[in-house]
Amino acid sequence: MISLLHGKVAARESASIVVDCGGVGYQVWVSAQTMTEVPTEGEAILLHTHLVLRDDSMTLYGFATVG
Fold first, then answer.
1. Own/partner pairs, 48-54, CB within 8 angstroms, 24+ separation
2. Confidence tier at 61 by pLDDT (50, 70, 90)
3. Deepest in the core among 34, 57, 59, 62, taking most CB within 10 A?
4. Do 10 and 39 form a contact (C-beta atoms < 8 A)?
């Protein structure tokens, strides 16, 4: 389970971001509220995450805070 990401913002899209963690980029889907707290590209970020596994996909959701 991926429960936390700490790295740099590599890209920002409308509903997701890419977090560079030691050279590996994780696409993380975030809410509009969390997106307001995402820093600009190149800045450090810490996200709490929830990984959803399905037969046809792996989706990582990110949250600025726990709970």
1. 48/3, 48/4, 49/2, 49/3, 49/4, 49/5, 50/3, 51/1, 51/2
2. very high
3. 62
4. no
45 lies in which domain range?
4-63
Q: Token digits for 60?
A: 């990582």
Question: Which of the 8 DSSP states describes residue 13?
Answer: -
Q: How many domains does the chain have?
A: 1
Q: What one-character-per-residue DSSP string does 38-67 give?
A: ---TTSEEEEEEEEEEETTEEEEEEESS--
Token pair belonging to 6: 């700490």
**CATH number where 38 lies:** 2.40.50.140
The strand pairing partners of 46, in sequence order, are: 6
Identify the pLDDT of residue 1: 83
